[in-house]
Write a structure and sequence with these properties.
Blueprint lengths: L5 H13 L21 E5 L2 E4 L4 E4 L14 H12 L9 H13 L5 E5 L2 H16 L3 E5 L16 H5 L10 H5 L1 E4 L4 H11 L3 E6 L15 H12 L2 E5 L11 H6 L5 E4 L10 E5 L1 H4 L18 H17 L2 H21 L5 E5 L2 E5 L8 H5 L3 H13 L2 E2 L8 E2 L6 H19 L2
Parallel strand pairs: 3-13, 5-6, 5-7, 7-8, 8-9
Antiparallel strand pairs: 1-2, 2-3, 4-10, 9-10, 11-12, 12-14
Helix pairs in contact: 2-11, 3-11, 7-8, 12-15, 14-15
Bound molecules: (4S)-4,5-diaminopentanoic acid.
Length: about 425
């Protein structure tokens, strides 16, 4: 019997009266897959429970942060202890220094770090810093990469902007967009050509070193080193947006995994352990341009919030202590192989792309290396696959253009169950 979603439907109707589109972020709206978003009641480990009492194996993990699984007891205890000492002071605390130091210890290129409240704030601030340091205006970004809802980066953006086909949001001025140069991902020649023409005007190249926001798209060998070389030659800064990949594809993020060091790194998601934090960091020499050490302005009443800092500090410490990465690699490989076999058995053109514990089953014939490839994936098939998985108790990101995340709370039996469900779902999709 199909599960009922009636309570979610009622709550969504009510939400739509008071919240634009009924959601506080468009990625959750199920716009690309149709139907009503599921309203979540609770989550524990690898499991989500919706308000209708349906349980799901979760591969969204709050869009990345929950690498240790939901409601991890040590993270909850740290938040609880911090909360009892007061929830916000607007003054420095020792825990902020501990978190900054731990980030600098873990992320290879980071010596100093500023805590902010979200990944968007981190990228916005890093861009401003790059412009402040270089005295140049232009930014290079890649089509299908998403760096939060920063005006200058909301051009040919991935994630919800791609899912809901809003390549350039109204409200982003032409002037702002003019300073953003958009290039195809994985295209070293295009980057070289842009630098030929605009080299002395480019402040920074910002890149998702592994893209998560058009589905999981790995960098081709040579692409990240080329970005490093070209930016260095021209005096532009290289910014790795590691909001998704940080503490995910390796403890030290994509820069550790691919051994390429950017000038600035932006972080979010895992760094807050499920509470709102972002961070940006880099060499002390660069970071000391930020006010009050330097003169590039950036501020925030709740920055370094004690609850979020406690959750982040505990999460990163646990990751450092327990090193879940080899196991995440194994589990994610098992899942990727299982999804691949399921789609092959049903005769569906597809490709599964994975880096560490981020992965995507694309309904696309052949590898996806850039936005042009991603755009030609069969999103109708994806939508049907998504609902067939939901109906059988597996919760996936509600867009072809988002990555699935495996957590340390998943295990072989959950992965195998997911693969079985995927086999059934693929058969239905193929029969359409
Ligand atoms: N940035 C997340 C992954 N694309 C989605 C979160 C959101 O936009 O709500």
């Amino acid at each position: 019997m199909s599960p009922s979603f009636s309570k979610s439907q009622v709550l969504f109707e009510e939400a739509r009266r008071w919240i634009p589109g009924g959601v506080n972020s468009p990625a959750r709206a199920f716009g690309a897959v149709g139907g009503t978003p599921l309203f979540i009641e609770r989550a524990e480990g690898a499991w989500l429970t919706d308000v209708d009492g349906n349980r799901y194996i979760d591969y969204v993990g709050s869009w990345g942060p929950m690498i240790l699984g939901h409601a991890h007891p040590e993270v909850l205890a740290a938040i609880d202890a911090a909360m009892r000492r007061g929830t916000s002071f607007g003054a420095p605390t020792e825990a902020e220094t501990k978190l900054a130091r731990l980030i600098a210890e873990i992320v290879p290129s980071v010596e100093k770090v500023r805590l902010v409240n979200s990944g968007t704030e981190a990228t916005m601030s890093a861009i401003r810093l790059a412009r402040g340091i270089t005295g140049r205006d232009k930014i290079v970004k890649f089509a299908g990469n998403y760096h939060g809802h920063v005006d200058s980066l909301l051009v040919a953006a991935g994630s919800s902007a791609a899912t809901l086909a809003v390549p350039n949001s109204p409200g982003v001025t032409e002037g702002t967009a003019r300073d953003t140069i958009v290039l195809p991902y994985n295209d070293e020649a295009a980057v070289a050509a842009a630098f030929e023409t605009f080299g002395d005007q480019i402040a920074a190249v910002i890149v998702e070193p592994v893209v998560g926001n058009m589905g999981c798209v790995p960098p081709e060998p040579g692409f990240l080193p080329a970005l490093r070389r070209i930016t260095q030659q021209s005096g532009a800064l290289l910014i790795f947006d590691e909001v998704m990949t940080g503490f995910r594809v390796a403890l030290g993020g994509a820069q550790e995994r691919f051994q390429v060091l950017p000038d600035l790194t932006t972080l979010g998601k895992i760094v807050g352990g499920g509470l709102p934090i972002g961070a940006y960091g880099g060499r002390a020499e660069w970071m000391d341009h930020v006010l009050p050490a330097g003169n590039v302005f950036q501020a925030g009443t709740l920055s370094g919030n004690p609850l979020a800092t406690a959750a982040g500090l505990t999460t990163l410490s646990l990751l450092q202590k327990t090193d879940p990465y080899p196991r995440l690699e194994e589990l994610s490989d098992r899942l990727a192989r299982g999804l691949d076999e399921a789609a092959s058995a049903a005769g569906l053109p597809h490709v599964v792309q994975r880096v560490g514990s981020m992965l995507t089953l694309f309904f696309h014939d052949g590898p996806v290396g850039n936005w042009e490839d991603a755009e030609s994936a069969d999103t109708r098939r994806f939508a049907r696959f998504f609902w067939e998985m939901i109906e059988r108790g597996v919760y996936l990101p509600c867009s072809q253009y988002e990555a699935m995340f495996v957590s340390a709370a998943h295990d072989e039996s959950l992965i195998d169950r997911t693969v079985e469900v995927a086999q059934q779902a693929c058969e239905v999709v193929a029969s359409l």
